[in-house]
Sequence to fold (207 residues):
Amino acid sequence: MTRPKATAVKTATTKPDAAKTAAAKPAATKPEAKSAPVMPVETPTPDGLELYLLRHADAGDPARRTGEDAERPLSSKGRRQAKRLGRLLKDLGARPDAILTSPKLRASETARLVARSIGAHASTDERLSVDFGGRELAAMVAGLEPKVRGVMLVGHDPDFSAVLSWLVGSDIEMRKGALARIGLPDREVGAGRGSLRWLLPPDAVPG
Fold:
């Protein structure tokens, strides 16, 4: 099957190895850089799945914090990012049927703030906390009820950037607080099987 091309993404280097990325995350986190939002208008496939990948919002500098990394909360900037994103999704009428989040505090706080804005509930899934790759994503999608047409996953990098790049067949960076929406017309997870509908960096969200 021919891999669909992602829509106008500026950050392009080398494509991830699909076989390796499907099983595990890449070795290093990419530096954050500003990118323009990509939000084409597309009609979801009736029998498909709309997958939202949301990287947790800003949680400050981990080097300046003591204690367990899993307990690092959102910064005030991060809380503003999550609230703005939630309001935008509400205004757009984009309400996933399910929201699953990493148990790490910065991710679960992001998920709760967004869920509250759109009138949804966020549930914890341990698979999103570390080493989240294509295999884990495929298992999660397979476990969804058929009536679920949209699911939001809230987690971390470098996992999410690698999974997104693998799904759409183009190298893409997800900044903290960035949201990607991917269409899976046949609900099958695989290299190049997704179609990028939105790529929304946090600084592009109004409010």
In short: Helices lie at 18-23, 76-92, 105-118, 134-142, 159-168. Strands lie at 49-55, 98-101, 122-124, 150-155, 179-184, 195-200.
